[in-house]
Every structure is written in structure tokens, then in C-alpha cells.
Specification:
Number of strands: 16
Order of helices and strands: EEEEHEEEEHHHEEEHEHEEEEHHH
Helix content: 40-55%
Strand order of the largest sheet: 1-5-6-7-4-8
Radius of gyration: 22 Å
């Protein structure tokens, strides 16, 4: 399984995202933000594990890319090498895995959107014989995810407690932080490259994940933002005290200016924003944390969280903050182990379904779709 921080593909624009994440609140879906309200056609794949949904999406994306189509890739947070969706922004077409835990139905069934049911290509008698094993695997997988979410909730509370302690003991220079945030936001809006047009079906407002805690460890595609933007501000931080406020401020200013803005929340706590990208003016705010570091490109503006701390007060709190950081790290490690267990059991589950599948028929269905897309 992939655990590097680098993007799977090198492109001139951010093209790798997570449409959902395993968070302190459980699984958090942002699948409806893939095409947002500008998608023209959505194809929703249905079928059990191992029925070939991710391969269907990947092969279709590769084939359409060979025809010159630009694609955005949406990876699975519970299996970082598996695709959950692909979106073609210049065509407004998405192909999405609409199964648990991100159940999805076509927004305009028949009129614009369609279900592709891969269960048509399995032999139910093969699965019926394996029902006892499948039921046991399903319960065990659910148990490991439940345990993972318990540990993620602990990690999330540790992060929130660190923020509260710093604020409660007046360790943060709020006035200086507010001035820097306003100044940085103004600079981003002023120095971003001249306005460029979006692809006709690129959403103007969207909220997606660009990082996730996966079975192979923490994965981030924030480097995509750095390689895509001309004006970049990198926030070097251990808490969300600066990054959330800055990203929120930039987003609000962008909306007032009528600019498109894509925001990316923290994969542990989706209520906290970490990154944003303004595609029309080629600008981005990227947060670099110790567990998900981002190397600032040459010429980036650097905003260090520590410059807004009263260091003597922060030093007084160092022991307490250190204990919280340790507890957070341990909770995340336990959550990762539970996700690994769930992943391995899911592979076993897929094995049962693979025995029942007619993959030649699946490929024929996929080929019919690519022909239809080519004609559109």
C-alpha cells in the first residue's frame, strides 16, 4: 500500500483528492462536492466488494485520458490505492462508487444520471454458499472500524484540548495573529496571477479532503497545491490556531470577490480547515504539520505559528502540550492498526465475491460506457 506524501500523478493542477475521510466523528463524506452543482452526468456504480468498481473507474479514466480528457482522481481513504471516483471537469462527467459507506444515488436518474449495477454480473448461488463467511467478515470489519473511530475521537480531543489550553492561558497573541491573517489574505488576493478561466464544469465552491489516515499511514496530496499555484502561503503549524482562521478568511474574501475557492479540511477534524486553492488566480494556502510535512517551494510566503505565541507562556505549558501530543500520536497509531485490520478483512471479503464475478461481462459494460462517453 502506498504511504508516500507525493501525488500519484504530476500535473499542472491539483488532480488527486479524497472524497471522504475517517475522522474523529466517523466516516465523513464529501462525495456530493466532486462535481458539486455543475456536473452534467453522473454514473453511479453499484455492487459488492471485489466486483471491480475501482478497476472500472481506473480503466475508464485511463482510456479517456488517452483521448485527451482531463481527469480528477478521488482515492479511497480506507484503501489509498483504490479509486472511489473520477471526474472529467471539462465534460462535467463523473463516475462514482455509490456503495457503503458513501451510499449515493443518481441526482437526476435517467434524465442525466445513471446507475451501473455490477451485481448483474455475479452468480448469486456462489455467494449464497459463502453467506456464513461473508456475514462473519462483515461484522469483524465493522468492529475494527468502530474501534478506529474511537481512537480517532481520542486523537481529535487531544488536538482540540491543545488549542483550548493555549488560548485559555493567553499563550496566543490574538491581535498579532489577526493582523497577519488579514495582511496575508490581502497579499494573496493582490498578488495572485491574473484571472484565468475555469474548465466549464469545474465547481466554483467545493470542500474535499486532500489528506487522509489510511491503512498504509497518513497520505497527503497537498504537494499538488504547491505545484499548481503561483502564489503560495505555507503555514507551518502544530495546531489549527492559525491555519483555520487564515483559510476561512481567504475563502470569505474570495467569495466576496466572486472568485472560485476550493477548501480542504483536516482529515481528523473536518470542522477545521487546513488548505485552500483559488484556481482562477493561481493561489493557495497550504498547512505543513509535523505529521504531514509540506516542503515550501522557492518563493513561498512562510507563516510560522510560533511567531504568534507568547513563548514564555507556551514554555510553561510545554509539559502539558507534550503529553497531549504523545496521547494524540498513540491514538492515531492505534486507529491506523484498526484500519489495517479492516483492510485485510475487506480483502478476504473481496475474495469471496471475486469467485462469483464474470469480469468479462464487467469489461464489456465498461467498454460500452467508454464508447458512449466518446460520443458525448
Amino acid at each position: 500500500m502506498q504511504s508516500e506524501f507525493s501525488p500519484k500523478r504530476s500535473t499542472s493542477q491539483p488532480r488527486n483528492f479524497f472524497p471522504g475521510a475517517n475522522t474523529r466523528y466517523g466516516f465523513h463524506s464529501r462525495f456530493h462536492h466532486i462535481g458539486a452543482d455543475v456536473a452534467r452526468h453522473t454514473y453511479v456504480l453499484k455492487g459488492g466488494p471485489g466486483t471491480g468498481k475501482s478497476t472500472f473507474i481506473q480503466r475508464t479514466a485511463d482510456e479517456m485520458a488517452s483521448r485527451g480528457w482531463t481527469a480528477e482522481f478521488y482515492w479511497c481513504a480506507s484503501d489509498e490505492d483504490s479509486l472511489d471516483a473520477v471526474y472529467f471537469p471539462e465534460r462535467g462527467i463523473s463516475i462514482v462508487d455509490g456503495t457503503h459507506p458513501h451510499m449515493m444515488d443518481p441526482p437526476l436518474p435517467g434524465a442525466a444520471d445513471h446507475i451501473i449495477d455490477l451485481s448483474r454480473h455475479w452468480d448469486p448461488e456462489v455467494l449464497e454458499v459463502r453467506r456464513p463467511e461473508i456475514e462473519v467478515l462483515k461484522k469483524r470489519i465493522a468492529s475494527h472500524f468502530s474501534a478506529a473511530y474511537t481512537h480517532l475521537a481520542v486523537a481529535g480531543r487531544c488536538s482540540a484540548d491543545a488549542d483550548r489550553i493555549l488560548c485559555r492561558h493567553d499563550a496566543v497573541d490574538g491581535a498579532s495573529r489577526a493582523r497577519a491573517i488579514r495582511r496575508t489574505a490581502q497579499k494573496i488576493m493582490r498578488e495572485g496571477r491574473r484571472r484565468r478561466e475555469l474548465a466549464c464544469c469545474s465547481p466554483r465552491r467545493r470542500e474535499l479532503f486532500i489528506s487522509a489516515l489510511a491503512p498504509g499511514g497518513a497520505v497527503s496530496y497537498a504537494a499538488d497545491l504547491c505545484s499548481s499555484a503561483g502564489h503560495i502561503c505555507v503555514v507551518q503549524a502544530e495546531t489549527s490556531l492559525v491555519s483555520h482562521s487564515l483559510v476561512s478568511h481567504v475563502r470569505d474574501r474570495a467569495h466576496l470577490a466572486g472568485l472560485a475557492c476550493w477548501v480542504f479540511p483536516c482529515s481528523l477534524d473536518p470542522q477545521r480547515l487546513e488548505h485552500c486553492y483559488l484556481p482562477e488566480i493561481h493561489a493557495a494556502v497550504v498547512t505543513s504539520r509535523p505529521d504531514l510535512p509540506v516542503e515550501p517551494p522557492p518563493g513561498s510566503e512562510i507563516l510560522e505559528e510560533r511567531q504568534f505565541l507568547h513563548l514564555s507562556r507556551a514554555e510553561y505549558l510545554r509539559a502539558t502540550l507534550g503529553e497531549l501530543a504523545k496521547a494524540r500520536h498513540e491514538a492515531l497509531a492505534r486507529a491506523e492498526r484498526e484500519l489495517c485490520c479492516a483492510y485485510r478483512l475487506h480483502q478476504d471479503m473481496e475474495g469471496h465475491y471475486k469467485l462469483a464475478m464474470d469480469y468479462a461481462a464487467v469489461e464489456e459494460t465498461r467498454t460500452d460506457l467508454t464508447r458512449a462517453l466518446a460520443r458525448s
